[in-house]
Amino acid sequence: MLVGAFACAHTPQLLSRPETEDRDLVLRVHTAFARVKGRLQALRLDAIAMVAGDHIEAFFLNAVPALAVYVGTECAGTFGRYRYRFPIHELLARAIVEQGIERGFDLFYTQDAPLDYAFYVPLHFTMPEPSVPLVPLHVNVYLPPQPTPRRCYEWGRALGEILRARSERVVLMASGGMSHFPGTDRYASPEFDYDRRLLDQLTAGRGRELAAITAEELDRAGNIELRTWITLLGAVGDAKADVYCYEPSWHHGNAVVEWPL
Amino acid sequence: MAALSALHYRFPPGSAYRLNRCLFAIKSDDAFRARFLADARAAIDEMELDDTDSAALLRGDRDALVARGAHPYLVFMADLRLRMEREAMTFEDF
Fold first, then answer.
1. Is the CB of residue A76 less than 8 Å from the CB of residue A85?
2. What is the pTM of this model?
3. Candidates B12, B28, B77; nearest CB to A61
4. Whole-angstrom Cα distance, residue A176 to residue A66?
5. A20 in contact with B, Cβ within 8 Å
6. Do A17 and B92 touch (CB under 8 A)?
7. Is the reported ipTM for this assembly greater than 0.85?
8. CB atoms within 10 A of CB A42
């Protein structure tokens, strides 16, 4: 069963705040994360399926999967003093790989890749208590050519169908965005207006329109990571978004969103 | 429509593979980063970079590195990880 859908920002500055970051803004995003955590607890989950874009951490140029599933018993990642280890819901992960391939998506799978911070920053704040196993789902966002938004949407639609047919209670969570340009001369000037227009579309239940965005437009708007959201949108269809927060920092549009199902 | 060359994140050319591998190691390999901090030139030699890439990396010249085909995100995070160890940066951990 697909019982919930959320999207969360994941900038590491939310976890470990340097002096460059506005403390009150960071705490407001934490408040939105706490709301998500409360919802996840109320939903009595068996697993979290999380769609995130790798920051060239799990996958380097020796193998660049467009879409991947972590299948195995557990996954782990490290960021400075932070150490994370999550059990994987192996049965569900395997079902997603097998049925995804059966449906024509040539998925890559891994049993041995470091978990990127795109996964564990949101989970640090939102993992329910007691914790539930994870199914990490990867979408290539940083190494062009990335999967097209339309392909992400189609994969999300298949993923939604796979999850709805399962007996487990599963939440789909997208990690990423919104506008930011790390490593470029645009770092301090994200496209906040673009983000706000997108959030208006999502609030109106017009998520399917995002499947038509081009790769070039995503790059220009600092929204290459929106591919994870678009994957989720394929699964939730025309559900209307409830925006918990949109907090533009000096370098990043931080959003936390639920699609009540 | 912007030309493809104007994209912020571009296909990493094969000619920049060693450079990107070196930046990836600074970002994600704690042991390599420690060797780089101790002796940057020796660490770069391990990665078999050519003179132009080596010089750009030693200068920390982002624009030159990106022009050579380095991935901007790798340049960004490699630089950040080095600065976090070289400078007394303070963080509030949640």
1. yes
2. 0.96
3. B12
4. 16
5. no
6. yes
7. yes
8. 11
